[in-house]
Amino acid sequence: MDKYSVNSKSYRYKPVFVAFFLLIFSIVEINAPIIAYGSQILGFGLIILSAYMTHPKISISVFLFFFLILALMALLSIGQYSHLEYRQIFWLNTLRTLFWVGCAILMYDYISKKLNISSLKNILKIAIILSAFMVILQFISFYVLDLELDLSKLLGGTGVRSLYSGYSEISYRPTGLTSEPAIHSGIMFGLLTLYYILNKNIDWSVLLGIISILLTFSTLGVLLAFTYILITYTSSFSKFLLGIIILILLGFLFQDYLLQRIESFSSGNDGSNNVKLAILDYFLSNSNIFLTGLGFVGKDSNAPAFYEALYDMTYYFTPFIQYGIFIGSLVLLISLCLILHSSFSFKEKALISFALVKLSGPTFLFFNFFVMFLFVLHRNRRFNLS
Q: φ and ψ at 164, to 5 degrees?
C-alpha cells in the first residue's frame, strides 16, 4: 500500500471519482444554463460536499490561504466597482470566479492527500480521450454526414462558434466540449501538459489530443500543437527526427490556412485577433483602468463588443486587465517565480508557460483547476524526492 492509500475501502475509491468529476466539470465550457448553473456551480458544490463529508479535515495553512485569497479578491472587486463604466454583470461574474477559485483551493488539500498520483494519470488520459473524441465526432459528423453536432443547442444553450467564413475550404470548425475552437485547443494543451508531467511516453491518447487541436483549425491551436511536438519530441534522435517529419507535414497541410489568417490580421479583418488591439487601446487610454484594472467584469448588453474578449489576452496580459498595472505586475511576477522555482523539469516548465498563453486567468474555469493540479504534482514531486 503506497503513501496515498487509505485503510477504509469506502475511502479507497472515492478520491478517484471526486478527481474525475472535478476534472470533467472543469473542461466542459458550453454556453448552456445546465452547464453554467449545473456542473459549474451545483456540480462543484456537490463534489466539495462529498469530499469533505468523508474527510472532514483541512489543513490550517490551506484554510488561511483560502480565506486570504478570497478576501483580497473581494476587497479589490469592491474598490474597482465604483469606476467601472459597464458593470451590469460585474458581481455575477465576480461571485462565480470567487467560487471557482475557492473550489480549486479546497480541493487541492483533499486531492493532494487522498488521491493516488497513478490514478490521476488515468483520469487525465480519460479526459483527453473524451475531449478529443467529441471534436473528431463533430468533424466527421459535419464533413461526412453534413450534420452539425452542436452540444450547446442540444443542451438548451445559444449555440457554439463553429462556423467559419474566412478560408474557403473550411466552413466549419469543431469545438468539442467547449463553445469555441480556440477554447478546446487551450484546454487540450493544458491536459496534455499535465499528462506529460506524469507520463513522458507519447502514447496514442496524446496523438489523439494533438489531432483534435489541429481539427479545430484554431490558429493558436495549430501553433500550440507545433510547440508541443517541438518540446516533447527531443528526448532522443529518433523522436527528434519523427518530430521534424511531423512538423513538416503539418506545415504543408496548414500553410494556406495560416497564411490566410496572417493576411486577415494584417488587413484588420480578423475579428478574433484584431479586437485584442482595441482592448489594449482601451486599457492604456483610461487611467483608472490602467491603475486598478477592470476586475472580473463581463460583457453586458451595453458594453462594447470587445468586452467579450477581455480575458482572452493570455495570462501574460490578463492580470493587468484584472488588477491594474501595479498589482497585475506583482501577480505575474509571483506566477513566473513559482514556475521557475518549481520542481518541474525545463521541458515541463516550458509546456506550462505555453499553456498559459491560452489559459488566461481565473475567469477561465479550467485555469483554476489546471493550477491546482500543478500544485498537486509539484507537491508529489518534492515529496518523492525528499
A: -140, 125
Distance of CA 277 to the CA centre of its chain: 22
Predicted confidence at residue 7, as pLDDT, reads: 43
Distance set, CA 146 to CA 171, 173, 312, 315 (Å)? 11, 13, 31, 37
Q: Is 189 helix (H, G, I), strand (E, B) or coil?
A: helix
Q: How far is CA 174 from the centre of its chain?
A: 17
Q: Indicate the residue type of 275.
A: V
Q: pLDDT tens-digit profile of 152-171? A: 999 888 888 887 655 556 77
Q: DSSP code of 201?
A: S
CA distance 376 to 62: 13
Q: What is the CA radius of gyration of the chain?
A: 21
Q: Is 35 in contact with 183 (CB distance < 8 Å)?
A: no
Please say whether the beta carbons of 344 and 351 come within 8 A. no
Nearest residue to 212 (alpha-carbon basis) of 185, 231, 191: 185
Site of grid cell 473528431: 136
Name 29's bridge partners.
178
The answer for residues whose C-beta is within 8 angstroms of residue 169's C-beta and 6 or more apart is: 256
Global pTM value: 0.88
Query: Which residues, other chains included, contact 212 with Cβ-Cβ below 8 Å and sequence gap of 6+?
Result: 131, 132, 135, 136, 176, 184, 188
Among left, alpha and beta (phi > 0; psi -120 to 50; other), residue 176 is: left
Place of cell 474557403: 168
pLDDT in tens, 85-139: 888 889 999 999 999 999 999 999 889 888 888 899 999 999 999 999 999 999 9
